[in-house]
């Protein structure tokens, strides 16, 4: 019996060992070590846009000065990698300084300040932000990061004067003007030189409004000139109100800044116009490429495509069109003799002698009227 028990025990132990062997896990197979996964590259940041700001003295919808500048801004906004913003109807003085400073604080790379009265605020803010490029329109002060610019719009004024001189019957032409500063005085003089080149008997009567943009006041000024016998009205103002006054009175008109014919289709002979797009695009490209320089003065001309005249109205005779376009071709070719002597002032004194041409410095500082202008520079 004991032997039988021992035998059974031995069989049980054997069976248990066999069971463990049959059900046991195979030794773990060592796998080759995997190479560590490469670290994911951090997403690249999109390049920052080149931010360009514009400050306007009047509404962009005025069809005038600020409207023309904003057409230039839109050309810049279409450039790849550029972001633009504008502030409109910004008064000259403390308000403009605040607007310009806010743009500089908000990371704008280049700021265009487009009115003469923004000059000192631009210079002041530029000192605080030496890494920002500032472009001031129509002024004369500069610094390491401020350049000024303008266009020879007097060339367009001269051409429109040729038209006015040919079209007047009363020999009285009215000029609604903003402020008696060199920019405006120079334009009046060039216009008058054109008028008297084709009509020596004609005179140009000037009324000052002392505002860039006030449609009601501009219209009243035009009406006063019409009441004085003027049969052609032109302007250095931002709204088409003088054009409308001329059409209502059955007179002719010459616009400024943009083609104003749609506001007075029966009166508008042509307009002296700005085309800021090419100049603005070129300037911004220079800023983006690191080629822009401060302390510069740019005075773009008809040859540069920045100033021009609008299409003629249907009432302008073909011979007048032809003669004006011939003079325009000379200006486009770089032949500018508008302020070539002899040129007399209102007193009949020769101020630009025969055989000489007024240098740019004299034109930029012009404070006197030529012979043929009725009015004062005050």
From TrEMBL:
The keyword Signal applies. Keywords: Signal. InterPro entries: ABC-Purine-Binding, PnrA-like. Residues 51-323 form the ABC transporter substrate-binding protein PnrA-like domain. GO terms for cellular component: plasma membrane. Residues 1-22 form the signal peptide. PANTHER family: ABC TRANSPORTER SUBSTRATE-BINDING PROTEIN (PTHR43208:SF1). This is BMP family ABC transporter substrate-binding protein. It comes from Pseudodesulfovibrio cashew.
């Amino acid at each position: 019996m004991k032997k039988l028990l021992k035998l059974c025990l031995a069989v049980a132990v054997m069976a248990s060992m066999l069971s463990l062997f049959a059900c046991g896990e195979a030794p773990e197979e060592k796998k080759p070590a995997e190479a560590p996964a490469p670290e994911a590259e951090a997403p690249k940041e999109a390049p920052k846009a080149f931010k360009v700001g514009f400050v306007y003295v009047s509404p962009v919808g005025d069809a005038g000065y600020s409207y023309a500048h904003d057409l230039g801004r839109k050309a810049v906004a279409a450039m790849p990698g550029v972001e633009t913003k504008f502030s409109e109807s910004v008064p000259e003085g403390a308000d403009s300084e605040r607007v310009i400073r806010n743009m500089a604080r908000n990371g704008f790379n280049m700021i265009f300040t487009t009115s003469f009265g923004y000059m000192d605020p631009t210079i002041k803010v530029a000192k605080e932000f030496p890494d920002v490029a500032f472009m001031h329109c129509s002024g004369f002060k500069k610094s390491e990061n401020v350049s000024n610019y303008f266009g020879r719009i007097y060339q367009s004024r001269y051409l429109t004067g040729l038209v006015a001189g040919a079209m007047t019957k009363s020999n009285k032409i009215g000029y609604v003007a903003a402020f008696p500063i060199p920019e405006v005085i120079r334009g009046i003089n060039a216009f008058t030189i054109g008028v008297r080149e084709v009509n020596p008997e004609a005179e140009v009567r000037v009324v000052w409004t002392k505002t860039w943009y006030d449609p009601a006041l501009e219209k009243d000024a035009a009406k006063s000139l019409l009441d004085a016998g003027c049969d052609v009205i032109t302007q250095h103002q931002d709204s088409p109100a003088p054009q409308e006054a001329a059409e209502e009175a059955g007179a002719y008109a010459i616009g400024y800044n943009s083609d104003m014919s749609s506001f007075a289709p029966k009166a508008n002979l042509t307009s002296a116009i700005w085309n800021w797009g090419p100049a603005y695009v070129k300037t911004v490209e220079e800023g983006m490429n690191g080629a822009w320089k401060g302390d510069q003065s740019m005075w773009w001309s008809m040859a540069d495509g920045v100033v021009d005249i609008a299409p003629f109205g249907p009432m302008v005779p073909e011979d007048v069109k032809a003669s004006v376009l011939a003079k325009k071709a000379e200006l486009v070719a770089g032949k500018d003799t508008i302020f070539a002597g002899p040129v007399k002032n209102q007193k009949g004194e020769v101020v630009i002698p025969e055989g000489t041409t007024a240098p740019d410095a004299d034109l930029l500082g012009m404070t006197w009227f030529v012979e043929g202008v009725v009015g004062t520079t005050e």
